[in-house]
Write a structure and sequence with these properties.
Elements lengths: L1 H17 L5 E3 L3 E3 L7 E2 L5 E10 L1 E8 L9 E4 L6 E2 L4 E4 L5 E5 L3 E5 L8 E5 L5 E5 L4 E4 L7 E2 L11 E4 L7 E8 L5 E6 L4 E5 L20 E3 L4 E4 L4 E3 L8 E6 L5 E6 L7 E5 L15 E6 L3 E6 L3 E3 L9 E3 L10 E7 L1 E3 L7 E2 L3 H10 L5 E7 L6 E7 L5 E3 L5 E8 L13 E2 L8 E2 L11 H13 L1 H23 L11 E2 L2 H7 L6 E4 L3 E7 L5 E7 L2 H15 L10 E7 L2 E7 L6 H6 L5 H18 L6 E3 L8 E3 L5 E3 L6 E3 L21 H5 L6 H16 L10 H4 L3 H13 L7 H6 L10 H14 L10 H10 L1
Parallel strand pairs: 4-37, 25-34, 38-42
Antiparallel strand pairs: 1-11, 2-8, 3-4, 4-5, 5-6, 5-7, 8-9, 9-10, 11-12, 12-13, 14-22, 15-16, 16-17, 17-18, 19-20, 20-21, 22-23, 23-24, 25-26, 26-36, 27-28, 29-35, 30-34, 31-33, 32-33, 32-35, 39-40, 40-41, 41-43, 42-43, 44-47, 45-46
Helix pairs in contact: 1-3, 3-4, 8-10, 8-15, 10-14
The structure holds 2-acetamido-2-deoxy-beta-D-glucopyranose (NAG) (6 copies).
Length: 792
């Protein structure tokens, strides 16, 4: 410990004379890894470029967001992600020939811009986050925007020659296996590619490009995100961020888990919100669990991977490597047998597909193929001719288990081990953060120690003692901050995504609280137009004193959430007795209003069901703050101009940390009669399944058009309690009538006039009835609900 300290002294001591934060690097000068403030800053201070600590003694030259806060400074670009440099002697130098060179520990060149220039050059960081090497006649020789790592910033073009590559894990910044790129057919895709296999998972691989809404005609292959949150690509793929509009900062990043997410951060805030993501079901991301394993997704507890029977985890420290066989299988057909796993799908890597094969034929086929690892056996009705299909598999990749997948996999295992493996091995959970610290061997050049250097060291020691202490203190502090930021890097969706408004501002916006657009027990909602011309819904709490607790609960909960199917909150006001909340305005009002006014056809209803489920799943989702809504009802599902649903009113919900379910201290019942799960009445423990129950009731209401709180008019049932009535009534109608569809006509909302998709209707009824089961454990999770609605 003593030696490195002494070595540091002259360096730090020296640094206080020579370097300072600056906005450009001129020819012949360099930035040193040893000097904390040897960095380039963009004119407004938004971005900083410098050496970024990625572990013990390991640094990368990077660009990161540095304003307004840097407790979690997201890296947007790295020069040497795959080859970190040592913490001493390394530097980035702009040499006389015009080449920008990054050297490790003084001698080894790990990266360079490969540029030459006759005229003088300089390196600048601009306010878009682009590091530009230009020469004196304004020519750009090199820029970081042309060589992205895993992040695309607004106005940075993704082109035919660039791609985004994920990092290896949350803490390992080196190149990972997921890529966003333009394929040779001009379509923008997400790809999993490890040294052995590669497969595309977005857009959905079983769809043709045009079926996925992509065009293959424009070969200019350019995609760009604008500052407002509009992403557009030349293959016709576009999306608008859920918080479209002027935000301070945005970044589109391919995360280490293979999902592509848009993050945004509003002015003055510390935390980043996810305002769009490509994949809603993480198990559909190929490669996410590695080979020979199964992914299953439980929103409340996260994505889980498990080795299939007969296989074991390849590397306990890197679960993405998946599993490997515990057996050796010879080619002798009489030594192999099969084990059936139901509702399991492995995508891709088929030896071929065989229609109308019986199970025995398929088994024989797999036995004959030496490297057949098993086969998929499923009955297909949609997509092409129906029938039984047999798919022998040469590799078992992209496996996932879903109760709704109508097919089975038969694993080929040695006969001797078939009994032994009758129970599948337990799940292993993918950690949200895997703490692995990069550590570089120290390999500094030997400096020939000489007496004068010794003298400088000791002199510095004497003079700079106090300075050293304070600098080391700050330094350790900064390193700590870096460590924290690594752990919290993704999924930080927290803290006050809104601003404070003054009462007079809101009074003006609503024209003196004139236009009332809704109301509830807690307060009245008015339409208003903010000074930046955004139309807002402004909720004014009726009784400030009584509403205060709810108000604060609502503010702290919804301020932390951001999803396209959750209502966005823009701000609040708390002045004396005035307590107000400012939401985005939803053109089409609530689902309740629309159900009674007959505007919703079947397509819209189904879409609303899916969107609402997505919003709720997000509330319950892995790695996010875990939140119960507790008051799902049509009044709280709002519709935008395209009838896209957004869940609103989290006033009664309570912020929960995952895993603390048992200690729930709900002080009083929450919810609305007709929609409340039986747990409330029986004082059973409350879990996310209360939201599932209420959601099921809402589905039944959308299907039947009947208000669950009113009961069903048929006399037999009217005496029972409301919610039970609607559920029981639907169940009774279904029972005994399973053949045919007459019962469906009985229960379906007459407003639909018989115009609906019978398959979707059946799925929705089935899902609804599963959601409203008395036993909370028998109800599906919201994630499973989405799967059932979309993939059945
Ligand atoms: C392709 O896209 C680019 C950029 O949007 C556009 O300028 C160009 O006209 C398009 N080409 C064709 C053939 O549509
Ligand atoms: C988003 O950008 C595309 C391409 O520039 C444009 O055609 C589209 O109108 C934009 N959408 C919005 C809502 O601004
Ligand atoms: C499989 O074969 C390899 C070499 O042929 C041997 O080292 C290994 O122990 C065998 N594994 C099992 C489970 O028999
Ligand atoms: C295949 O295995 C069976 C049973 O273990 C054995 O009787 C037979 O001789 C083997 N066949 C070959 C070709 O090795
Ligand atoms: C498979 O069976 C179905 C139904 O019996 C039939 O329509 C189809 O033509 C068969 N396909 C083949 C390839 O035999
Ligand atoms: C980071 O990932 C790379 C590539 O897989 C690997 O070589 C390196 O050892 C990893 N670093 C750590 C600290 O695990």
């Amino acid at each position: 410990m003593a030696t490195p300290l002494i070595i540091l002294v002259p360096l730090i001591f020296g640094s206080s004379f020579t370097s300072s934060t600056s906005d450009s690097l001129s020819e012949g000068s360099s930035l040193s890894v040893e000097t904390m403030d040897d960095v380039l800053t963009s004119p407004s201070g938004t971005f900083t470029a410098g050496f970024y600590s990625i572990g013990q003694n390991a640094y990368c030259f990077a660009i990161w967001f540095s304003k307004p806060f840097c407790t979690d400074c997201p890296v947007v670009w790295m020069a040497n992600r795959d080859q970190p440099v040592n913490g001493r002697g390394s530097k980035l130098s702009l040499i006389q020939s015009g080449n920008l060179v990054l050297s490790d520990a003084g001698y080894l060149i790990v990266w360079s811009s490969n540029t030459v220039s006759a005229s003088s050059t300089s390196l600048k960081l601009d306010d878009n986050g682009n590091l530009i090497l230009g020469n004196s006649d304004g020519h750009v020789l090199w820029q970081s925007f042309d060589a992205p790592t895993d992040t695309l910033l607004p106005l940075q073009l993704l082109t035919k020659i660039t791609k985004l590559v994920s990092s290896r894990s949350q803490t390992n910044f080196s190149s990972g296996f997921f890529k966003l790129y333009f394929d040779t057919d001009n379509v923008l895709r997400l790809l999993y590619e490890d040294p052995e296999v590669s497969s595309v998972y977005w857009p959905e691989p079983y769809l043709l490009s045009w079926e996925a809404g992509r065009s293959t005609y424009n070969n200019s292959r350019i995609a760009v995100l604008d500052a407002l949150g509009n992403f557009s690509s030349t293959d016709d793929f576009t999306f608008l961020s859920a918080d479209y509009g002027l935000k301070l900062q945005r970044r589109l990043k391919i995360d280490f888990d293979g999902n592509l997410r848009l993050y945004s951060r509003a002015e003055g805030e510390e935390n980043w919100l996810v305002s769009w993501e490509a994949m809603s079901d993480p198990c559909m991301i190929h490669g996410s669990c590695g080979p020979n394993s199964l992914c299953s997704y439980v929103p409340a507890s996260g994505r889980k991977c498990s080795c299939i029977p007969g296989y074991k985890m390849k590397d306990n420290t890197d679960r993405s490597l998946g599993c490997e066989p515990e057996f050796n299988l010879s080619c002798n057909q009489s030594e192999a047998g099969f084990m059936k796993l139901t509702h399991v799908e492995f995508y891709g890597y088929d030896y071929g597909f065989y229609q109308n094969y019986t199970l025995d034929m398929c088994k024989n086929l797999c036995l004959q193929i030496c490297d057949c690892k098993g086969f998929q056996f499923k009955f297909i009705t949609a997509h092409g001719p129906s029938g039984i299909y047999c798919y022998p598999k040469t590799q078992l990749l992209n496996g996932h288990r879903s109760v709704n997948f109508n097919g089975d996999i038969y694993l080929k295992l040695p006969k001797v081990s078939l009994d032994y493996h009758s129970n599948p091995v337990p799940d292993y959970k993918l950690e949200c953060s895997t703490q692995v610290v990069e550590q570089l061997e120290r390999m500094y050049p030997n400096s020939n120690e000489n007496p004068s250097l010794r003298f400088v060291i000791w002199a510095a020691c004497a003079i700079g003692g106090i300075e050293l202490f304070s600098i080391l203190f700050v330094w350790c502090f900064l390193i700590r901050a870096h460590d924290n930021s690594a752990a919290a890097h993704n999924y930080m969706l927290a803290a006050s995504g809104f601003r404070k408004f003054t009462y007079s501002e809101l009074k003006k916006a609503t024209n003196g609280f004139k236009e009332e657009i809704g109301g509830g027990a807690e307060g009245i909602v008015y339409k208003g137009i903010l000074s930046d011309r955004r139309v807002a819904a402004i909720k004014r709490l009726i009784d400030a004193n009584q509403g205060e607790a709810e108000f604060l609960a609502e503010v702290s909960t919804i301020g932390k959430l951001n999803h396209m199917n959750l209502i966005d909150i823009w701000g609040y006001c708390a002045e004396g007795k005035h307590w107000l909340l400012v939401y985005e305005y939803m053109e089409n009002g609530s689902l309740a209003k629309n159900l009674s006014s007959k505007t919703l056809d079947w397509k819209k209803r189904f879409n609303i069901a899916v969107g609402t489920a997505k919003g709720l799943a997000y509330l319950h989702e892995e790695c996010l703050e875990w939140v119960l809504h507790c008051d799902i009802k049509p009044q709280n599902i709002l519709l935008d101009s395209n009838f896209q649903p957004k869940v609103s009113d989290f006033g009664m919900s309570r912020l929960l940390k995952r895993g603390h379910l048992k200690n729930l201290g709900f002080s009083r019942m929450r919810g609305t009669r007709g929609y409340m799960a039986p747990e409330w009445v029986h004082s059973h423990p409350i879990s996310s399944k209360v939201d599932v129950y209420s959601f099921g009731i809402v589905l039944l209401e959308m299907i039947t058009g009947r208000n669950p709180a009113m009961g069903v008019e048929e006399t037999d049932y009217a005496s029972e309690k409301g919610q039970r009535t609607l559920v029981t009534w639907v169940r009774e109608q279904m029972k005994g009538n399973e053949e045919g569809s007459r019962w469906m006509r009985e229960i379906i909302d007459p407003i639909l006039d018989g115009k609906y998709d019978p398959d979707e209707m059946l799925i929705m009824i089935r899902v609804a009835l599963q959601c409203v089961q008395e036993d909370k454990d028998a109800r599906p999770t919201m994630g499973q609900v989405i799967q059932m609605l979309l993939h059945d």
